[in-house]
TrEMBL record:
Lineage, highest ranks first: Bacteria, Bacillati, Actinomycetota, Actinomycetes, Streptosporangiales
Record bears the keyword Repressor: no
PANTHER family named in the record: PROTOPORPHYRINOGEN OXIDASE
Record's GO cellular component terms: cytoplasm
UniProt GO MF annotations: oxygen-dependent protoporphyrinogen oxidase activity
GO biological process: heme biosynthetic process
UniProt keyword annotations, A-Z: Cytoplasm, FAD, Flavoprotein, Heme biosynthesis, Oxidoreductase
Subcellular location per the Swiss-Prot or TrEMBL entry: Cytoplasm
Protein name listed in UniProt: Coproporphyrinogen III oxidase
Organism expressing this protein natively: Actinomadura viridis
Biochemical pathway: Porphyrin-containing compound metabolism; protoheme biosynthesis
InterPro entries, per the entry: Amino_oxidase (IPR002937), FAD/NAD-bd_sf (IPR036188), Protoporphyrinogen_oxidase (IPR004572), Zeta_carotene_desat/Oxidored (IPR050464)
């Protein structure tokens, strides 16, 4: 059993998951977190007496890594699932049901698409041309808008694909990578001339809805409780977690790595045999600049979007009719401030059961390149959310309580070329013995994808400190993509 010292920089879910595996594998682990708290984008607090997440509220249940972690922590029996995942899109002035048969907004059932009324008559008429158009040439990576627009027309991109991808990345479809954000679609489209046929093939190959089980899962106290459960397991296995400890420098030494911590006036040196860098792209680039400049240059090219989540808790009487779906999305072309609304008390029965007399709602504001929309007071953002709910749901009362959470630079952008960029980052990193990277900047924003990357990084570092590192340096083992990570 190794007694080597492995340092994990960053105490988000990726860093904590990596630390847990390292500690359970026998390494002496130190986790360093620059902020005063652990959890990264996973955070929960009470609003109106309800525990409502301030960041991600669910993890994909049809991908195993997140559920496996909860099970290994001994909390599988506590998992809860949505009461409904039925959602809508605000299009052409009204809320409309998301059409059946779509994959990330790409339609496969033309009758369901027509019945949804999401598209205009002209936009609807353009879609079936995909079935007869010649193959769209595609060499390397292309943007989501360019490829899907060429096959089905711009209205499908603007009113179906953009709002669904926007809910994940808050990005621009003109820049988002087809290969990175929709890997299964990108792969299927290489073997089908028609994109409709490709999506039909994806759906046919998947499990039947009844057999697939719930799509999402969370914990009754909010998904923001998960990092604390992982942290407890890390410390129980002998690991150390230090918050409020900024890593200012990372440098290679002949026998490992040296990290410089704390303020410049009182620096602290910490030596490690191996290091996992599990922070966003910009701080990762800063740490790797001296000894892994090729990786640092690529990391600097990963942009981030900012957003805000406005949580409002209303008396149930504020709604003329109880919302029936989990929420709705708003395409950018509608030019409304709010881009997504989640009826949390409807989506999650455990919240409704805690207080049937109130309804908690989360409204999302902010897209990439529109940071000016967030340069307003919390009261202004709250007013925008209230105005949205009054217009679409007829809400006629003021909220009982509210909360505004800002995520500045919170969502990495998987723009065209992202897959190759990540490959170059990993190629440079894996040439450095005892170094690995993990986190949302690479292979997926969802909880399962971050955990998968953390597992691969921790496995490589355990192999290294146990004397098998040389054989592992040529393979990163972290090839999962973003499409199946949505939570």
């Amino acid at each position: 059993m190794s007694t080597s010292h492995v340092v994990v920089v960053g105490a988000g879910i990726a860093g904590l998951a990596a630390a847990r595996l390292l500690a359970r594998g026998g390494a002496r682990v130190t986790v360093l977190e620059g902020s005063p708290r652990i959890g990264g984008k996973l955070q929960v607090s009470e609003v109106g007496g309800l525990p409502v997440d301030e960041g991600a509220e669910a993890m994909l249940a049809r991908r195993p890594e997140g559920l496996d972690l909860v099970r290994d922590l001994g909390h599988a029996g506590a998992l809860v699932h949505p009461g409904t995942t039925s959602s809508a899109i605000f299009s052409h002035g009204a809320l409309r049901r998301l059409p059946q048969g779509q994959v990330m907004g790409i339609p496969s059932d033309l009758r369901a698409l027509a019945a949804s009324h999401v598209l205009s008559p002209a936009g609807l008429a353009r879609v079936p041309l995909d079935l007869v158009l010649p193959e769209t040439p595609r060499g390397g990576d292309v943007s989501v808008a360019d490829f899907i627009g060429a096959r089905m027309g711009r209205e499908v991109v603007d009113r179906l694909v953009e709002p669904l991808l926007g809910g994940v990345y808050a990005g621009r479809v003109e820049e988002l990578s087809l290969e990175a954000t929709m890997p299964s679609v990108a792969a299927a489209a290489r073997s089908h001339r028609s994109l409709i046929a490709a999506v039909r093939g994806i759906r046919a190959a998947g499990p039947a809805p009844a057999a697939a089980g719930p799509v999402f899962a969370t914990l009754p106290g909010g998904l923001g409780t998960l990092p604390h459960l992982v942290a407890e397991d890390v410390t129980a296995a002998g690991g150390t977690i230090r918050t409020g400890t900024m890593v200012r420098e990372l440098r290679r030494r002949p026998d490992g790595w040296r990290l410089t911590l704390g303020p410049a006036r009182a620096p602290e040196a910490l030596d490690a045999d191996a290091v996992v860098v599990a922070v966003p792209a910009a701080p990762a680039a800063r740490l790797l600049a001296a000894d892994v400049p090729a990786a640092a240059r690529e990391l600097e090219r990963i942009d981030y979007a900012s957003m805000a989540l406005i949580t409002l808790v209303y008396a149930a009487s504020a709604f003329p009719r109880l919302p029936r779906g989990s929420g709705y999305l708003v395409p950018a072309v509608e030019r409304r401030e709010v881009k997504a609304v989640t009826f949390s008390s409807v989506k999650w029965p455990h919240l409704r059961d805690r207080d049937p007399g109130v309804i908690a709602v989360r409204c999302s504001i902010g897209r990439y390149g529109e940071e000016h929309t967030l340069q307003r007071s919390d009261d202004d953002l709250k007013a925008a959310a209230m105005t949205e709910l009054a217009a679409t749901c007829g809400v006629s009362e003021l909220p009982l309580e509210s909360r505004v959470t800002r995520w500045g630079g919170g969502l990495p952008q998987y723009n065209v070329g992202h897959v190759d960029r990540v490959a170059r980052i990993r190629a440079a990193v894996t040439r450095q013995p005892g170094l690995a990277v993990a986190g949302a900047a690479y292979d997926g924003l969802g909880i399962p994808a971050c955990i998968a990357g953390a597992r691969a990084a921790a496995t490589r570092m355990l192999e290294f400190v146990n004397g098998r590192g040389e054989s592992s340096h040529g393979s990163d083992g972290q090839g999962e993509q973003a499409e199946s990570t949505r939570s």
